Amino acid sequence: MTPAQPAGRPAGDLVSPAENTWCPGCGNFSIEHMMKSAIAELSEEEGIPIENFVLLGGIGCHGKLVDYLNVNSFYGIHGRSVPAATGIRLANPDLKVICHVGDGDIYAEGLDHLLFAAKRNSDITVVVHDNRVYGLTTGQYTPTSPTGFRGRSTPGGITEHPLNPLEVMLAAGATHIARGYTRKVQHLKGLFKEAIMHRGFSLIDVLQICATYFNLTDYYNEHAYEMKEGETSRFESALGKIREWDYDREAPIPLGTFYSVDKPIYEEKFRALTADRPDRRALVRKVIEEWR
Amino acid sequence: MAEYSILIGGKAGEGINTAGLSIAGLFSRLGYRTYMYFDYPSLIRGGHNFAIIRASEKAIGAHRTPADVLLAFDQNSIENHRESIHGGTTVVHDASQVVRGEGYGLPLDAIVKEEKAPPITKNSAMLGALARVAGVGRDVLEDVLRESVPAKHLEANLRVAGRGYDAVEGVFTVEPLDGPALPVLTGNEVAGLGLVHGGLDSYVAYPMTPTSSLLHFLANRAEDLSIRVIHPENEISVIMMALGLAYAGERAAVGTAGGGFCLMTEGLSLAGMSEIPVTIVVGQRPGPSTGIPTYTAQTDLHFVLNAGQGEFPRLVVAPGDLAETYSWSATALALSWKYQVPSIILTDKTLAEGACSFDLGAVAMHPDRKPEIWDGTGEYRRYARTKSGVSPLTFPGRAGTIVKANSYAHDEAGFTTEAAGEVTALQEKMLRKGESLKEELSTYPTVRTYGARDAGRTIVCWGSEKWACIEAAEEFGARVVQPLVLAPFPARAWKEAMIGAGNVVCVENNATGQLARLLRQQGFDPGRSVLKYDGRPFAVDELAARLKEVIA
Asked: Which of A17, A18, A71 faces B402 most closely, judged by CB atoms?
């Protein structure tokens, strides 16, 4: 037998040879590099083999991230990463399943799946690249664009208010809710590691700069602040903190973990059924022989 | 030849389906082959439900119109079925409901009141009456009830059944046969068992008639079969969960009807491109749109053949009875994994919810096929371009290996590419899998024939119309030819089967002749179409009359 390889791997090895096509200054770079570091560090610190991480990508600029990392990936379709992630976690409980999704991708196209994954406390992590604009389809409003946003499909400006996705997630039953910002990379990496290690459904809404279509760097730099670490297990206080900024009004923008509680994990209730692999053909024969 | 038809009717919520299955169980116990057609509107209470149970010495899979016994819980059950009543029909009715009754009237309200039994036991009174009319011993009746009624309700059911038995007289005698007492299963139940035989780990579905009962059956039997059964928020989630399961190494199947399949088509195309296996049971019902939800049709053939954007190979099978449903469900799953293509099992309400005697021992199974698993040499490439087009599989979690699945055009490692050469090579690799699948299928019974080759007249049909056609064909001395595989179309087997076909008629449960269209696309003459599109399957006698117009 060959000696066991150490589970960790230098973060640099995780970058794939795929050509990077994000715009210069794109917030996705921060997310990519912090996710890469988070995986490398968790592998080292927690002894999780690199091959046990699975990344899912939706469709949008964010999705390219899964091509750029040498990690297992399921580069799927628009808005549908979350149920695929649940399927992957169901099949193999050892896997750390991380969905990279966009704000248009998951808050518009795939919101139903997000709500239900939170409701059932599926043991997956959802990282929303929330640049509050469609980038790859060149500049339309998304569910988190502020009132008045002028996009290519709404040149007169939108009259509706944005969703506060964190409030939606709290109401749906998410057991771990956080917000990060692509200009606070070390903080972001910490949020990633914490969410990945959370047992149950975790969501991080990452305020991400879109250098080309919606550059809010100055706005975020001015308003964003890191919350002090404290109590995160109370629904009411989490709700209050989540409502401090509604993605619309000018207000301080808290960053960090709002809510984190332990609840039974959806996938675990199925484990007993398929724990061992019995001869199912014999089981079929038995069902038919004892038919009533 | 001994054969019997029993019609039982009443309002929804009165347990007509269960009563019908008990009647089938009674004949099964006597060694007969049974078939049950169940007809019900889309509502929970009221309306008119009926079941036609046919029992025969030989294997059957269709109903006939004339009834030997009609069991009526209400006036509609007599009035709506005048065409089934003839001189030899014995009518037994609930005298508490039926005003203009004929035959034997059973005061069911009074009987259940006197026996202090719940209203649902009225079904047992009818079963008791049927047993007596058919000359079946009280011991057999009681055995059937013991096998089908939960213990805590058994005594009440036995008492009420006895009252029904005593209230009528013997009219004819069903002689017991030497045959085995076969279990009576629905197409959905057999599809589920076939999938498990084929290696199923997880079944994922959102309820939709006519495949809801497949979800219910597997959910109820999940522990017995050691499988996982999941009901997510919608059909999009259903197919995505299945693809996630399969990407991580578990064999998953999903079930739906046309409307739910509409929602799955983007996931179907993803399965095609990412080469993730998935098996989809599509139970047809009449559309367009909501249509007539609880009735039957063969209207989604071209939909399943063509669904999903882009060009990718798929396997589409259309079983015609329980034995074919069992073997082809297993095979659809296994071949989906061997060739990493989506497979579709196309059923309809008639097959999915109809019940029939099932003889597992007589099912001709196809050879076992296993997926190609990566041998671990060199660096793993998920989409390695091989001669067969099939890239060996491995799954996330394998040490030192990265598995990249992709919905974009991709290179061999799974990275997105838009390069012309790569895109061409990828498309050709996918199509090679289709050719390999077609080659493999050349050794399977993809086209079945019944009757003599020199008949000079041939009835072509597919799916659940198989048995009505076989029986009707016997009256004309015609041959029947049935394709089991619709994609990739077994052109060589079809050509061989149709040698000397003579006068050809194509029987289908749709308005436009969908199999006929497929045959023309493949360069074959489908003959004249005999179509029915009222949501009901052909009765044997009805089909024979229609055929007489075109081939007699």
From this structure: A71
